Give the backbone structure.
Amino acid sequence: MRRALAFSFIAGAGLMLAGCGASTVSLAGGAREYVATDYPAVLDRWTRTESLFLFDELTRALTVTATFESWDFRWAYVIRYAQDYRLTVPQRQALLQQRLDATHDVHEFYVALYGAEDAQNDLTRADGAWIVRLIDSTGGELAPTAIEAVRRPGVLETRYYPYSNVWRRAFRLRFPAKNGEGRPTIPADAEWFGLRFAGPWGNTDLVWDLAGRR
């Protein structure tokens, strides 16, 4: 059972983005034909939200929203960014190539969260309330190689990840795309992958189901 928590649900601030959360996704590369107005739908497709509610304490221990910055997502992001900043065609092509090349090395997530104990919600702290793992249906579990705190989300974060706000802590999580043997850390036969947030209050999983892998 991939969700070990007794109860988790989609909550307020992330409801709109999580509305299409049940849709499957694909990690395939290749060209896309996006225009800037496609970005909200692509963001929705690659974003998940979950909440952990403690019934005995009548409190929400954690609400977390995460976007997986896949090949598909990055393509749509660059098209939107290029229009917003009026990049030239060469500038757009260079930025797109740079962002797509990064997917060969890392799996990156943009995460925004809040919980009952704000001081303990810093994922960069060794003594924080939560650890995060990249998981998948084959039983894989991987710790991030980098957790970068977004100290003050600016216009890029609040416009391109609209679930970012002053009440949430924001982070970028990076995991290696391949293990030490050169094998993908999200296996080709995985039916789903996700992020697991675990700590003394319980745990909850954000899951992306993979198309064509069932």
Q: What stands out?
A: The beta strands are 8-9, 47-54, 59-68, 106-115, 131-136, 141-142, 146-150, 169-176, 192-199, 202-209. Residues 8-209 form one domain. The chain has five helices and ten strands. Residues 150 and 170 are 5 Å apart (CA to CA).
